[in-house]
Amino acid sequence: MGRSIILFVCLSVCSIVLSACETSTAPITDAKRANEAKWQEFFELWIGAPESELVSTWGTPEDVYEAADGTRILTYNVNRTQTTDGDFWGRDGQYYTGQTVRRECNIAVTISQQTVQKLRRVGNSCF
User: Fold this and answer.
1) Rounded distance, CA 92 to CA 65, Å?
2) Sign of CA dihedral 46, 48, 53, 59
3) Is 90 exceeded by the pLDDT of residue 49?
4) Minimal CA–CA distance to 126: which of 59, 43, 30?
5) Measuring CA to CA, which residue among 95, 25, 2, 107 is closest to residue 61?
6) Where residue 19 falls among pLDDT bands split at 50, 70, 90?
7) What is the pLDDT of residues 60-99, one digit of tens each?
8) d(Cα 105, Cα 77) in Å, to the nearest integer?
9) Which of the two residues, 83 and 50, has the higher pLDDT score?
10) Long-range contacts of 48-51 (CB under 8 A, 24+ apart)
11) Are 64 and 73 in contact (CB under 8 A)?
12) Strands, DSSP E only, in the chain?
């Protein structure tokens, strides 16, 4: 009988802990979806814009690649270091403890015929 009570208590505690974990990750998923939608909306504003307008607004890119067909890829990098005192959930959906985290976001803009054709982003700080 004593073992049954202990097993019941352990299972109850585990169930509570697991359900708390499940609910705490849902807002992060929703935040990531909302963030993704904002990026998509932002990128769509630039599709079809002249390259000169992009450069005058964003500044000089860190790197420019020119393909044989004349297509250009402009690369913009946003890098920073974040130091935290406590634990937190990052916007990238990862859990961090008090530490120094390098944040970076690299945006590649494809230009064809002096017009923005495509934008893509890579990094843990593209928000």
Assistant:
1) 28
2) positive
3) yes
4) 43
5) 107
6) very low
7) 999 999 999 999 999 999 888 877 676 777 777 777 777 7
8) 6
9) 50
10) 48/115, 48/116, 49/115, 49/116, 50/114, 50/115, 50/116, 51/111, 51/114, 51/115, 51/116
11) yes
12) 63-66, 72-83, 88-89, 95-96, 100-112, 115-123
Give the pTM. Answer: 0.61
For 68, what's the count of Cα atoms within 13 Å in the CB-facing half-sphere? Answer: 0
CB-based contacts of 75, cutoff 8 Å, min separation 6 = 61, 62, 63, 64, 65, 106, 107, 108, 109
Coil, strand or helix: which one is 116? strand
Which tokens hold the place of 80?
A: 């920073």
Q: Which of 19-23, 57-61, 75-79, 115-119 is predicted least confidently?
A: 19-23
Would you list the domain boundaries of the chain? 2-123
* Residue 52 pLDDT level (bands cut at 50, 70, 90): very high
Q: Burial, 109: exposed, middle or buried (Cβ in 10 Å; 0-12, 13-18, 19+)?
A: buried
